[in-house]
Amino acid sequence: MSTLRMRLRAAGAAAAIGLKDKLAYRINFGGTMLTYALFVFVFSRIWASSLGDSSIAGYNYSMMVWYFIVAEIPLFALGRFFWTLSRDMKSGQVAYQLSRPYDFVAYQFWERIGSALPDLLILMLEGLLIGLLLTGGFPPALAAVGPPDIAAASTGLAGTAAAATGVAAWLRLLFVPLSLLLSGIVNFYLQFALSMTAFWLEENEAFFWIFQKIALVVGTLLPIEFLPEAAQRIVVWTPFPYIAYAPARIMTAFELSGALRLIAGQLLWAVIGLALARLVFRAGSRKIAVNGG
Amino acid sequence: MITEKKKQTTLRRNSLGSYLRFMAMAFRINVKSVLEYRVNFMLQFFGMMLNNAAFAAFWAVLIERTGGVGGYGFADIMFVWGFVSSGFGLAHIVFGNIRGLSRIAIEGGLDVYLLQPKDPWLNLLASRTIVSAWGDFVYGFIIMLLLPGIGIERWLIFLSLLVPSALLFSAIFSAAESLCFFMGNSSSISSAISEFLLTFSLYPEGVHAGWYKWILYSLIPSAYIAFVPLHVFQSLSWPLVPLLWGIAIVYILLARLLFRQGLRRYESGNRMDARI
Question: Which of A276, B7, B60, B276 is 20 to 30 A from A266, alpha carbon to alpha carbon?
């Protein structure tokens, strides 16, 4: 069997383990869904109260609600890899895994992503429902999203054009899950690198807290266009806009070149994150000492 | 004669003074155990302050753009966040088990508290402290120091309302956790109630619509934890201070009553535990 096929099979098996583990404890996710809904609701009230019919930095009420709905998904579904990774490191579980015949970083990646997929899917559907209830429709750039109007399409050129617009809107909407997935990948590798500092430091949560809070302010609670200009110029060079801002911006103000630029940025940070994760892991794993047991 | 003597001894043992001594002792032991792990303590302490500071940055940016949210300016928001953080922190410092009550009951861990002479509800709640809560507690004081124009009277109002706020948090968290006696594993609903209370308390009253605002004055009393204290703080309405104390005492007594009702349904877990 070729190496590539073996690697793919190992990746599939790791993702299936993560997925099965998640589905076995699916009731636990009810609390997360409720908290997510609560946050979206409270922030929708904040935007209703502070924006009314006006807009800030090009965002009106409906756009801000959709922005928040999408920006919160990486936090709730893809933002907690650090804790389980760090726990495995501190409990010594990592020592058992290192001796197994697979690539440790790749295995961890597929297992965690497999485990996060149901959360991602559920929160996307929940967010879609809440967004439609709160705003009554999609944001302007995706407003044509809806069931394809076959009857209209058969009535002539105008109908065909309308149907084509609908299809194009659906295709644009697909950028959102793609960007969310890339956000999960960036999030995973950066959190992996942070959790691997446990090779050197027993208490490494502080790094994650700082990372999490910067991610919260830069792009999760507010679009980066809200930040002062000097701060905007700095943050575009960091990975933070590619965690929550990218998918949320694509959802609220879709524009093809902008969306492609954001996706390219996410891919770049995924590669940088992977390199960083491998580097920290390689350096750290030399320090491991297994004393029988 | 012997029974009468026993009664008197029990009364003396369970007087208010003895409970205050008991709470002080539990607090001292909890602090000692926390300080055994100094690095962890400092990390959680500053981590929680960092968490609150991140939200302060959010409000600063938003209010800079909008001028105000729900009738609150930046100073109002900061007071609410500081005050609620300190109340929430105080509740978790003194009653560290308020959010672990249902887990302890479900695992059969209540037996050890039932066998001791003190009130099992108070004993259970006070037998632990939450490390990160110290960061929350101190955050309010830092905010008060940073807010401009805070005189001695406003400091006194802040301090006098902290205990009712902590009591209200404790009452609702404890009541939510006590639902496990009636519903079995109620962790989802308990954590949702706790999350609702905290979230609604931290955001301006003006953003909430009238149709559900009554809930914030009854089942999820964010009004008495944040909105009314802000009003008292702004207008120096001292008559409302004893009223808030009264409301907090009613809530905490109701929470204890709910626990005691639930305790009747508790079955021993036959677990071997020891508390020294």
Answer: B60
Contacts of A70 (CB under 8 A, 6+ apart): A127, A176, A180, A244, A247, A248, A251, A252
CB pairs under 8 A between A and B: 83
Residue B224 structural domain: 2-263
Q: Please, what's the largest Cα pairwise distance for chain A?
A: 77
The CA distance from B262 to B178, in Å, is: 7
- A26-72: pLDDT as tens digits: 666 677 888 899 899 999 999 998 888 888 888 999 999 999 999 99
> Quick one: B20 exposed, middle or buried, by C-beta within 10 A (0-12, 13-18, 19+)?
exposed
Using CA atoms, how far residue B244 sits from A194, B212, B217, B250, in Å, is 45, 21, 12, 10
User: pTM score, two decimals?
Assistant: 0.79
In a domain, B272, yes or no: no
CA distance A126 to B151: 47
Q: What's the CA gap between B152 and A143, in Å, rounded? A: 56
The residue extents of the domains of chain A are 3-285
For the stretch B226-265, pLDDT in tens is 999 999 999 999 999 999 999 999 999 999 999 999 999 8
Residues 6+ apart with CB under 8 A from A247: A70, A71, A73, A74, A176, A179, A180, A183
Whether B74 has its CB under 8 Å from any CB of chain A: the answer is no
Do residues B157 and B232 make contact, with C-beta atoms less than 8 angstroms apart? yes
Calpha distance A18→A201 (Å, rounded): 27
Residues of chain A whose beta carbon is less than 8 angstroms from a beta carbon of chain B are: 27-28, 30-31, 34-35, 38-39, 42, 45-46, 48-51, 56-57, 202-203, 205-206, 209-210, 213-214, 216-217, 221-222, 226-228
Domain count, chain B: 1
Q: Is residue B202 part of a domain?
A: yes
Residue B172 lies in a domain: yes
Nearest Cα neighbor of B87 from B197, B187, B235 is B197
ipTM comes to 0.73
